[in-house]
Amino acid sequence: MDDMPPQCPLCHRPIPPDVPQSRHHLVPRLRGGKGGETVLLHHICHKEIHATLTETELARDYATPEALRAHPRLARFIAWVAKRPPEFNPKTAGPRRRR
Questions:
Q1: For the region Disordered, what residue ranges are annotated (predicted)?
Q2: What is the domain partition of the chain in residue ranges?
Q3: Which of 1 and 8 is assigned the larger pLDDT?
Q4: For a surface tag, which of 19, 45, 81, 90 has the fewest beta carbons within 10 Å of its beta carbon?
Q5: Is residue 99 pLDDT above 50, yes or no?
Q6: End-to-end CA distance of the chain
Q7: 74-78 long-range Cβ contacts below 8 angstroms, 24+ apart
């Protein structure tokens, strides 16, 4: 019996052990989430969350994977990245959030 890799709660793709991955604090540490719940994400998904939302926005309105998936920019990113293999990790960064 082979073990299934964990699934990214943002894009729902598997996270094999050999791909870049990171833990995301659902409530940012600087906004009261130190020691709080974390989720394992693909590194590319984690980077997109922080490129899209401020720490305050994350703490106030986006403290669950469901809320993150509902954000318009993240929803477009998820639709795009879902077509890529789990090990996909581009070498260049995308555009930062607009103010």
A1: 1-24
A2: 21-81
A3: 8
A4: 90
A5: no
A6: 49
A7: 74/10, 74/48, 74/49, 77/45, 77/48, 77/52, 78/10, 78/11
Per-residue confidence band for 35, with pLDDT thresholds at 50, 70 and 90: confident
- Taking phi over 0 as left and psi of -120 to 50 as alpha, with beta for the rest, 24 belongs to beta
* pLDDT of 27 higher than 90: no
Tell me if 13 sits within 8 A of 42, measured CB to CB. Answer: yes
Model confidence over 37-83: pLDDT tens digits? 899 999 999 999 999 999 999 999 999 999 999 999 999 999 999 99
Q: Could you give the 3-state DSSP secondary structure of residue 48?
A: helix
- Give phi and psi for 37, each to the nearest 5: -65, 140
**pTM, to two decimals:** 0.85
- Return all residues near 82 (Cβ < 8 A) that are at least 6 apart: 11, 12, 13
- Paired tokens of 41: 């994400």
Beta strands in the chain (DSSP E): 21-25, 38-42
